[in-house]
Amino acid sequence: MLGTCGASASEIRPQDAAAQGAARDARIVSIGGAVTEILFALGVGDKVVAVDQTSQFPAAARALPQVGYARALSPEGVLSAGPSLIIAIEGAGPKSTLDVLKAASVPVVIVPEVHTPEGVVEKIRAIAKAVGEDARGRALADAVRADFAAVEAAVTALPTRPKAVFVLAASGGSATVGGTGTSADAMLRLAGATNAMASVHGYKPAVDEAAMAADPDAVVVMKGSGQELPPETIFALPAFMGTPAARDRRHVAMWGSYLLGFGPRTPQAVLDLARALHPGARLADLPPRAWADGQ
Amino acid sequence: MSAAPVPGTLEMAPSGAADRARPVKAGLILFALLAIVAFLGAIAIGPLSIAPGRVLAVIADAVWGEGASLTGAALRERVVVMDVRLPRAMLGALVGAGTAVAGAIMQGVFRNALADPGLVGIAPGAGLAAVAWVVFGGAVAHLLPLGLQGLGLSLAAFAGGLLTTLVIARLATRGGQTSVATLLFAGLALGALASAGTGVMVFIASEQQTREFLFWTMGSLGGATWLKAALAAPFVFALVALSPFLARGLDAMALGEAEAFHVGIDVNRLKRICVVAVAAGVGAAVAAAGVVAFIGLMVPHLARLVIGPGHRALLPAAALLGAAVVLGADILARMIAAPAELPLGVVTALIGAPFFLWLLMGRRAFAG
């Protein structure tokens, strides 16, 4: 019942993953918040038997056994979930663990991580193929692509491009901000803002004066998991004193996995972020989507 | 030998009477049994529950079986026992034995109960090289032979630790004399320099690279493979095999360097051999498993409590007990948060730090 096929290790090819995943008794270990969201959106959430620690949505995913941090997976831990298929976001590992999983002839599908709308569509396509749900995958991909297009059209029409900064952490009085190449940077641009800290690469502690000079109109932070940075903390930082963001108390808090996940809920997240960054602008709602409901 | 206790050092001088009073042989047998039990536990216990009898059958089948191609659950059990638990237990035993012996040797060389292998810069040096590999290694990985490409981080850490220690030893040696005090200060200074370099690397590193490095610093046997265990083995075996030849010298050193010199020990040579052997042995352990905290400090003390300070028994005892403690801690690391796993260094520190405090609270005459 754990092993799903009669082939030996050497006969397993990645392509066979689809055939295996389609089996009624597929047991999927899902590594990556977006991967888990897509699996549930495809209606195969009940096949997921374990997830990584970034899989926080939907609520049902939080009740599943956790195999830990995606880059430090324990081979026996993953195998103890009895998986017939492992779907992991790019960067999951370490390699020694993936080697062991391969040796145990458990197919591992690696999903590329690209912080663009097309990247999300590509994730959906790859995951749908892996679980043998191509038709539902096409429907989901079409819906997500349409949502992205609708938000993009609305955002493009906005007259202003406010400057925003994403603050990941603020320990010891200095802010760690999201520079270019981060998913936060991609989200700010999708939401019709410019990244005030685009001169930084990756998530870096910002020099107070540089942050001040960047003169952001708004500060975006992550909500939840006990690390929320309230406006009082953010605007007490020297980096943001005297900036328009502090003056207008423009502080946007969104759930981390929602804001940065680049999964099927990302169009909704872009819309929410755009509304928060362009107060007063009228942006139309997206059609209701089952996979974007709930907390 | 009239062994008046030296103020400011642990009672480490071997006094014949005390040694006779201690159950040395019984202690060694006890530690050997503990190591064997821990090893068996390490291959019998894991998040994937396999009955102990099944584990033995799987091993027997893998070694003597006809090599029939397995599938499903049987294949999974084979892989978990042969490719995950066995190499991991081997590596754990090597890491524990090597680190603990090295700790005992360092405490002898420095004549200080608080000495541990970290004093001669292995951990900071290895750390700097490891983080440099995490950040820049991707660009040079293709230069390694194919089979070793996955081991870049380990090889870098090994080279970094060894190099740092050799530089420290070189700095501390003048005119053939190796000064223990200079060794200590050079270790401190180079350690600080390496940590600063690590800080620079962490600043350059991406969020993921930083986390990868952070996990490395907490120590883990998670990436254990047969190849890793085989690469670490010669260095640890060399250290353990060398230790009986160091015992007499370290015993004499406990009385004082001058006293050791007068009983015919080439003190400077002894110190250099010890530092290099420790650097190679611990370097290999750190390279394979990251920094496993407190083993080098705690295990020699624990062994000394049972079998006394004589190095002839202490060094093998530390090796056996080190293997047992690391294997035991690794079982906890794998089981507590299963199917995820805790970093091993966190578990050893959680056990080690309170133990150390308890020791300090006067369980034993102790002055650092």
CATH superfamily label of the largest domain in chain A:
Nitrogenase molybdenum iron protein domain
Of all chain pairs, the largest interface belongs to:
A-B, 42 and 36 residues
**What structural category characterises the helix and strand content of chain A?**
alpha/beta
- What is the number of domains of chain B? 1
Largest sheet of chain B: 2 strands, antiparallel
Number of continuous helical runs of chain B: 14
The major sheet of chain A is characterized as:
6 strands, mixed
Number of strands of chain B: 2
**Sequence stretches where pLDDT stays below 50 over 5 or more residues of chain B:** 1-19
Strand order of the largest sheet of chain B: 1-2
Specify the CATH class of chain B: Mainly Alpha
The portion of residues assigned to helices of chain B is: over 70%
Q: Helix- and strand-based class of chain B?
A: mainly alpha
Uncertain regions of chain A: pLDDT < 50 for 5+ in a row?
Answer: 1-21
What does this structure look like?
The complex is a heterodimer of chains A (about 300) and B (about 375). Chain A folds into 2 domains: about 10-130, Rossmann fold, CATH 3.40.50; about 165-290, Nitrogenase molybdenum iron protein domain (Rossmann fold). Chain A is built from 13 helices and 10 strands. Chain A has helices at about 15-20, 35-40, 60, 75-80, 95-105, 115-130, 135-155, 185-190, 210-215, 230-235, 245-250, 255-260, 265-275, and strands at about 30, 50, 85-90, 110, 165-170, 175-180, 195, 205, 220-225, 250-255. In chain A, the strands form 2 sheets. In chain A, strands 5, 6, 7, 8, 9 and 10 form a 6-stranded mixed beta sheet that branches. A 4-stranded parallel beta sheet of chain A has the order 2-1-3-4. In chain A, helix 2 (about 35-40) crosses helix 6, helix 6 (about 115-130) packs antiparallel against helix 7 (about 135-155) and helix 7 packs parallel to helix 13 (about 265-275). Chain B is mainly α and about 375 residues long. Chain B has a single domain (about 20-355), classed as Orthogonal Bundle (ABC transporter involved in vitamin B12 uptake, BtuC), CATH 1.10.3470. Chain B is built from 14 helices and 2 strands. Chain B has a two-stranded antiparallel sheet. In chain B, helix 4 runs antiparallel to helix 11 (about 265-290), helix 6 runs antiparallel to helix 11 and helix 13 crosses helix 14. The longest helix of chain B is centred in the N-terminal third of the chain and has 38 residues, at about 70-110. Chain B is globular, with a radius of gyration of 21 Å. Chain B starts with 15 loop residues before the first helix and ends in a 5-residue tail after the last helix. At the A-B interface, helix 4 and helix 5 of A face helix 4 and helix 8 of B.
